[in-house]
Structure formats: C-alpha cells, structure tokens
Amino acid sequence: MVLTDKIGRTVSYLRLSVTDRCNLRCMYCVTKDFQFIPHPNILRYEEMLRLVDIAATMNITKLRLTGGEPFARRGFMDFIAAVMKNHPELDLRITTNGTLIEPLVPELKKIGVNRLNISLDTLDRETFKEVTGRDHLNDVLATIEACLSAGIKIKVNAVAMKGINDKELGSFIDFAKENPIDMRFIEFMPMGDDTKSDSRFWSADDILEQGRQHAALEKIKVRPENHGPARMYSIEGGKGRLGLISPVSSHFCATCNRLRITSDGQLRTCLFSDKTYGLREILRNPDMDDDAVRMVIAEATMDKPLGYHLLEQRSSGCEGVCETQMSAIGG
After folding, report:
1. Using CB atoms within 10 A as the burial measure, which of 61, 74, 166, 238 is most buried?
2. What are the residue boundaries of the structural domains of the chain, listed by start?
3. Which segments of the chain have a pLDDT < 50?
4. Measured distance CA(253)–CA(295) in Å, rounded
5. Over the stretch 140-195, which tens digit does the pLDDT of each residue have?
6. pTM of the entire structure?
7. pLDDT for residue 250
8. If DSSP codes are grouped into helix, strand and coil, which group holds residue 318?
9. Which CATH class is domain 3-329?
10. Closest to 119 in 3D by CA, of 103, 143, 135
11. Phi and psi dihedrals of 27, rounded to 5?
C-alpha cells in the first residue's frame, strides 16, 4: 500500500515520538503550565514496534525516533536494536538533545546507528542555560565529538531566534568549518500559546544574508529525500555545511512526505494542524487488527492539509490553530 493524499503527495516518512519526557526545559518547547502525559497513556514499546511493522507495509521507508528526549526513556537502546533487527531496510534516524548519550556512542555504532540529529541552539554556556534551563552544553559538545570519532554522521539543528542566538551565527559557521557536520538553522515556529509573538522570528533569508558576511556560502544541489526541506550551502574552506529550513517564510508543504505519531499514539498529518487520529485505542483493542490501523492511517493521510493555510489562519487571529506545544507533539 502506498500512502497518498488528496493533492497527490506521497507519504514515505514517519516521525515517531517515544516519550514526552525530557531532561531539558527549552523555552520554546515546555511552558510553565505544561503537564506530562500520564504513563498509562504512553505507548508501550511493543505497541510502537507494531506500528513500525504496519508502517513498513505502507511504503514508509524512513523512520525518525524522537521525544521529548528519546534517550530519557528506559529501554530505548533495546527498542532501537529491535527496530533495526526487524527492519534493516528502513532508513532509521534519531533526534536527540545529545546530553545523555556520549557513553552510549560505541553501542549505538555497534547496533548500526549511522546518523543522529542533535538539537543545539547555542554554543555559549550561559545562553544554553537560559534556553534550556540546564547546564549541559559541554555534554552535548562531547557527544558530537564522540559521534564524529565513531563515524556517526551528525546534523546539528538550531532553532533560529532573534535576541537569543542571532549574535552567534559566526560562531556556528566556524563550528561547521571545523567539523564535518550539517549545521542547520530552523525558523522559529508559532506552536502553542506562548509562541504567538513574532519578536523572536529570524528568517532563513536573513540568516543567509548575514551568514555571507562571515564566509563564502554556495548553494548545493541535494536530493530532497536525503535532506528533506533544508537548503544546503557549502562553506568555503570548511569541513561542514550550512543548512536553512524555512517552514514559515518559504513553506515546503507541496512536497511534505511525513506523518507524526505522538508518544500517546495520536497520529498527526501536519505539524501545524491540531487535528489528531487516535491509534492507541485501536492498538489496545483485541478485536481490532492491523488492517484497522492501516485504514485509519490511510484515511488520515488522504485528508493531510497544507500547513501554510493553517499558519495564515493563525496569523489572521483564528483560534484553535497550532495551539499544541511542541513537547506534546515530538520534535
């Protein structure tokens, strides 16, 4: 079965959140009144493995495991190993904040993990504490170094925020010059009540213009299936590259090929849509089989919206659009 929607987009990429728990408290992700999902509502690993099995029969070829912080959940390493054993054909990726895994890098490499996305919004220790509420910058940098030494490819993702990390662009470009990484800036997205202000928004075009004041940047032609929505640029004299992801200023909805499943089993067809489709109840109902799950996924995909339409509604003051916090959705 091939998953397609009503405008002809083919879905082949699933992002699966294994937990909403995280050891950081990032300012754009967790609000002061945020409540964690009750443990009984979190999918069990065997339920997640079943979802991966089902997804693999529906033309899903790329799987990203996210959180919260996925490595904060007990047993996550065994889950990774099980996924890779059952589905060696899947392009498996993991998104992490990198604070917990430096000692795990040799085991990750042994299991077969070859790529990690590491979230890192600043290279300044004090700013890191301000953004995340924790003092773990050195742990993240140690993880990146360990991964590169082990031959694990790294993409570093930074949420671009005016007044927070816009003064560090030169430092980030130097970081990519010195290390064989993809240093990617993601535009600040208006997710949840606390992000409605656009005062932190720093556009990809502005980042590129300012970046060229620090280094010669040349656009690279890349295959979309390898780099998704990122525009990639070589850095003259550098080992790494610069990437720009612009979900707000220059949307890529027409080519979106992804679905999300939250840690409590809610299927989301668009990051900016608050509409969800419950899978947990089906997975836990002994009278419903895999075909019932497939039917929900297929029907939900058919109604997959164009996210920029939702952003337009939000910017015009429409209530009930993009209200869900990122921490509840999964990175």
Report:
1. 238
2. 3-329
3. 195, 226
4. 24
5. 999 999 999 999 999 999 999 999 999 999 999 999 999 999 999 999 876 555 54
6. 0.91
7. 72
8. coil
9. alpha beta
10. 143
11. -60, -30
